[in-house]
User: Fold this.
Amino acid sequence: MAERLLVIGGDAAGMSAASQARRLRKPDDLVIDVLERGHDVSYSACGIPYYVSGTVASAADLVARTPAEFAERDIGVHVGHEAVEIDTAGGRVRVRTEDGERWEGFDRLVVATGAVPIRPELPGADAAGVHGVQVLADGIRLRRALEDGEPARAVVVGGGYIGLEMAEALVVRGLDVTLVDAAEQPMSTLDPDMGAIIADAIRDIGVTLRLGEKVEGFDTENGRVTAVRTESSVLPADLVVLGLGVKPNSGLAAAAGIATGPTGGIVTDRRMRTRTEGVWAAGDCVETRHLISGEPVAIALGTHANKQGRVAGITIGGGYATFPGVLGTAISKICSAEVARTGLNEREAEAAGFVTLSATVESTTRAGYHPDAKTMHTKLVVERRSGRLLGAQIVGEENAAKRIDALAIALWNGMTVEQMTALDLGYAPPFSPVWDPVLITARKAAELVESDMRTP
Ligand SMILES: Cc1cc2nc3c(=O)[nH]c(=O)nc-3n(C[C@H](O)[C@H](O)[C@H](O)COP(=O)(O)OP(=O)(O)OC[C@H]3O[C@@H](n4cnc5c(N)ncnc54)[C@H](O)[C@@H]3O)c2cc1C
Assistant:
């Protein structure tokens, strides 16, 4: 008799797991059903800012596969089905639909419930015009509000990468945009010196930055937001977008006794098996190991979710695959300003017990004489003595940030900055200076490591 795989959550991690399991096991051996509480599956949440801006014309363009397409591959996708309880001993999940509740049995279970956006418990946070952007339906609602309501002033709360991308979308839509963050810099995952550079770039784009200002509430009129109130200002707003970060959506699993870790994410091994027999987990709902610090981390990124879902699906399918951990490589942009990071910043490296040296270099994206050359800043965080790369950050323009991939590969392979100085990277004047910014910064860092050798 066929086993039944139940997947909770029908986006990146869940659908990757279902697809890989199906690839390896035929329907007469494994029946696969996916429970999705929303009305969309297998869509690119990462594309939401570009749908909101209008760069992507239709929400359908963000959908990789529909439930009907999954049905053709013998994967049952059930939208509007919310898992409300997991009974691990009984091998069943209580499911809520608009018709009521019922239990669905499983032999194997994948929990891929994603993340929950952090929403402030502040007066007016639920008012009309205050938007979160977590799922496709949020993006559709926001775009409708922009097109129907013709708002003029927007406030984005939170200066992380989602806040930045949403600010870009609103700038593209022609709104007057203010970005508020309680921290002293946007992109708090960067060191302050690099954060200051991206802050200047954001101001140059015409976005008003209010840094070090904590939001205290939202003024409303007839149930609709009219302003964002911070400790020191009242910022008029026809529309507010919240980008305050996310945390693992692990409550359903935790209530069932599935182990969670210090970050709140579900604990798995490298094959994405939880500590409960027959239960796997993948994506934003899990915690994983940071490959440089060795610490558990919950870093919500689609790149991790897809890979983890794939590993869970292959394992369930009887194959062998592992997810070793993450560097936290992330990249983003706001209009022409690009930003990227990988590994540990100075604060994180020190917290992990490293003593660090850092090198920052201002250089250009193309040969300096090329008319389209743009300024870029590259920073390397390096371990004292060993000279091993611990992390990197980039702020710049026009494809500057994508150089983070070369740095992530160096980091992944445990390279020292001395070894990096000899990397055989591509060069032609339209692509980089003859000494690529990665090489120049590695050389500067190697010199620092060498001169530091002479001190005790
Ligand atoms: C605006 C935005 C931009 C982003 N940009 C990037 C980017 O550029 N690069 C990048 O790497 N990452 C980006 N991300 C993050 C990326 O989208 C997520 O890391 C990824 O979607 C996580 O996949 P997941 O399957 O774990 O979770 P999700 O995509 O959140 O999917 C979880 C699914 O589970 C469903 N679900 C939850 N609970 C239940 C339940 N009890 N019953 C049934 N269904 C349930 C949810 O409805 C949801 O569909 C972005 C995210 C957002 C919101």
Residues 437-452 form the longest helix (16 residues). The chain has a mean pLDDT of 97. The two ends are 69 Å apart (CA to CA). The pocket of flavin-adenine dinucleotide is lined by residues 8-14, 35-38, 45-46, 48-49, 82-83, 112-115, 133-135, 162, 249, 252, 283-284, 300-303, 305 (CB under 6 Å).
